[in-house]
């Protein structure tokens, strides 16, 4: 625990841990751009937390760069959206015609109907390539920044090593390394079988859950494709996905605990694999469902009634692809086709869904992440009674309105005294123990009060679990930027809210145990790298099968040309990503020089130490030789006999070795 009398720590807590403080309000937007803040945090909470907040600042900077690169597309999309909005309001007779003509004229100059058909596929391809290269640049530049921060913070030699798990169950055996008595697995094959079975159970549980959800909503979804409010569905999915993720996270912890890992590193790796699968399935499933699965299952369920009647597909069944595969031609020229109508409707529906999903995710994700643990702790302390909601709201209000921890402590004491059992057994006992064992002279009153306040707070903030949220934001941005160009802006807003909420939770909960680290865990970088490839596959699939780019370039609507374009473009994109990895070195030149200089200095001091040891040994031997040797005759005879016996034994062993050869 930090010393409550440390003035710098008190200023830091007042700036990021007290919402009622004016410093807190002034730091809402300045913390994420303060490059000195991670260094201050790592001094008080450990280098692992410092690297986490430095990575959030790194993501924010590259999010701004992505938004600047996509600014022309944002402008085109904004004008197009304004045109659509004005047309909708004109139909409702809520705006004047003059405003509609002004915006419509501007929109027609930028995105007319014919221009949008020709520009949108090319824009989507450029956005997909830019987003993929951007994601790889984020990873490569972070590796360099991570090494530089490790040099500045003096953590380049921090090594976690192998940490045994206290809950491991095994048999006692002698270690082959040092001969000590250690615990090992009963059977290595049984351990591997348990790991495989637990992961298969996790996958099966996910499959059953999604199958149940699909069967529950299939009948409703296939009938109301054109009448659904996709923005509301996206907002609802953001809440449902958070609930599902937290439920399955508990299941993942239980299954990983059942695997009986011997070391903390293997336990973290197994849990990380489950979280990776969980994240990919939850975040990719709605987009893939709206873009590819649903049009494949119900190809004839799209289009407005007027368009369907004009093409003569209003009587076709939703799953009958041959019935709705029609085109309206004027001679040789295709005026309108239902495939084009379906593709435009799919992109439009997905865009609306993503807008509602990302906007609600900014608030729902952070609010639930903060309020649910607090509510669970309140329930465990108070129990269930009629005025629980009123007391919980009052507790939240006290936490937000108190400008210092003294008000919070008074609120916590009132909460403790309302429970007689906890007051008698916990609070009084801890006070008497402190007084009897340590005494008031050993611990000042300020330190005792700070310790009592820490005991009443929630468990420490978990940086590794929160890092998974960053990977989710990164994946969602990589997946949705092609469809929804405002995704980078929402990504920046998400990072702003997430940064402030995480800083608040660091001070609002118990102070975490400081941990040394060389950077973020290597497994997380591998996860971010996998998300780059997942986003590349998704973006190219959208460009290939949900735009007219391939058909316009090659004048061919066949499936073979689409697969050929997808595979070739994916190969080119992989080569570009590999080229970025090759060009950008992982270690900066100044850090490399620092490491080499340190190795040379260490080698010099080691050589000096060895030379001094050799010099001391030589001096000792010289002093020994100059002394007169006085030996007892009996001892001399015994030494001679022992030497002759050793020579005989060595000669016998040599003769036996020659015979064996």
UniProtKB/TrEMBL annotation:
Record localization: Membrane
Short name of one Pfam family: Anoctamin
Keyword Transmembrane helix set for record: yes
InterPro entries assigned to the protein according to its UniProt record, in alphabetical order: Anoctamin, Anoctamin_TM
GO cellular component: membrane
Domain Anoctamin transmembrane: 42-598
Topology in the lipid bilayer: Multi-pass membrane protein
A molecular function (GO) term: chloride channel activity
Keyword Transmembrane helix: yes
TM helices/strands, residue ranges: 59-79, 120-139, 195-218, 230-255, 276-297, 522-543, 563-584
Protein origin, superkingdom: Eukaryota
UniProt keywords, alphabetically: Membrane, Transmembrane, Transmembrane helix
Protein name: Anoctamin transmembrane domain-containing protein
């Amino acid at each position: 625990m930090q010393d409550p009398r440390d003035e710098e720590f008190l200023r830091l807590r007042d700036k990021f841990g007290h919402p009622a403080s004016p410093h807190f309000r002034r730091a809402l937007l300045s913390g994420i751009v303060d490059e000195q803040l991670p260094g201050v945090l790592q001094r008080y909470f450990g280098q692992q937390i410092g690297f986490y907040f430095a990575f959030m600042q790194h993501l924010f900077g590259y999010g701004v760069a992505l938004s600047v690169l996509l600014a022309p597309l944002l402008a085109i999309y904004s004008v197009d959206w304004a045109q659509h909005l004005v047309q909708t309001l004109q139909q409702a007779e809520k705006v004047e015609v003059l405003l509609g003509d002004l915006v419509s004229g501007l929109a027609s100059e930028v995105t007319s109907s014919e221009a949008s058909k020709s520009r949108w596929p090319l824009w989507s391809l450029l956005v997909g390539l830019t987003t993929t290269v951007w994601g790889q640049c984020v990873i490569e530049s972070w590796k360099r920044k991570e090494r530089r921060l490790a040099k500045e913070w003096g953590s380049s030699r921090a090594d976690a090593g192998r940490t045994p798990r206290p809950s491991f169950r095994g048999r006692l055996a002698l270690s082959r390394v040092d001969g000590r008595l250690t615990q090992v697995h009963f059977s290595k094959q049984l351990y591997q079988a348990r790991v495989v079975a637990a992961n298969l159970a996790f996958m099966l549980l996910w499959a059953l859950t999604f199958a149940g959800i699909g069967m529950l909503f299939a009948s409703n979804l296939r009938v109301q494709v054109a009448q659904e409010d996709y923005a509301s569905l996206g907002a609802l999915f953001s809440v449902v996905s958070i609930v599902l993720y937290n439920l399955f996270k508990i299941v993942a912890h239980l299954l990983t605990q059942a695997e009986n890992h011997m070391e903390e590193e293997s336990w973290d790796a197994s849990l990380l694999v489950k979280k990776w699968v969980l994240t990919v399935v939850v975040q990719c499933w709605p987009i893939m469902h709206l873009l590819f699965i649903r049009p494949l299952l119900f190809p004839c369920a799209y289009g407005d009634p007027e368009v369907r009647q004009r093409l003569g597909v209003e009587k076709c069944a939703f799953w009958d692809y041959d019935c709705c595969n029609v085109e309206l031609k004027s001679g040789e020229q295709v005026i309108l086709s239902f495939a084009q109508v379906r593709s435009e409707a799919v992109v439009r529906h997905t865009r609306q869904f993503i807008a509602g999903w990302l906007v609600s995710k900014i608030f729902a994700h952070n609010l639930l992440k903060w309020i649910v643990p607090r509510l669970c702790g309140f329930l465990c302390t108070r129990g269930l009674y009629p005025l629980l909601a009123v007391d919980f709201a009052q507790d939240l209000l006290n936490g937000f309105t108190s400008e210092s921890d003294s008000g919070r402590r008074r609120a916590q004491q009132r909460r403790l005294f309302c429970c007689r059992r906890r007051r008698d057994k916990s609070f009084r006992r801890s006070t008497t123990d402190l007084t009897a064992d340590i005494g008031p002279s050993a611990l000042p009153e300020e330190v005792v009060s700070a310790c009592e306040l820490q005991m009443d707070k929630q468990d420490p903030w978990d940086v590794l679990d929160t890092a998974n949220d960053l990977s989710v934001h990164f994946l969602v941005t990589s997946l949705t930027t092609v469809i929804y160009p405002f995704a980078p802006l929402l990504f920046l807003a998400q990072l702003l809210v997430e940064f402030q909420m995480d800083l608040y939770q660091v001070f609002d909960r118990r102070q975490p145990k400081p941990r040394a680290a060389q950077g973020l865990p290597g497994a997380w970088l591998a996860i971010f790298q996998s998300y780059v490839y997942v986003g590349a596959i998704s973006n190219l699939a959208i460009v290939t099968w949900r735009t007219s780019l391939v058909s316009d370039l090659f004048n061919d609507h066949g499936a073979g040309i689409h697969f050929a374009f997808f595979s070739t473009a994916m190969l080119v994109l992989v080569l570009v990503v590999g080229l970025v990895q090759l060009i950008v070195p992982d270690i900066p030149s100044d850090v490399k020089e620092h490491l080499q200089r340190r190795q040379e200095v260490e080698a010099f001091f080691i050589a000096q130490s060895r030379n001094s040891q050799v010099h001391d040994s030589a001096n000792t031997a010289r002093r020994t030789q100059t002394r007169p040797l006085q030996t007892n005759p009996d001892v001399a005879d015994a030494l001679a006999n022992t030497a002759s016996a050793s020579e005989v034994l060595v000669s016998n062993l040599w003769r036996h070795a020659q015979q064996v050869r």
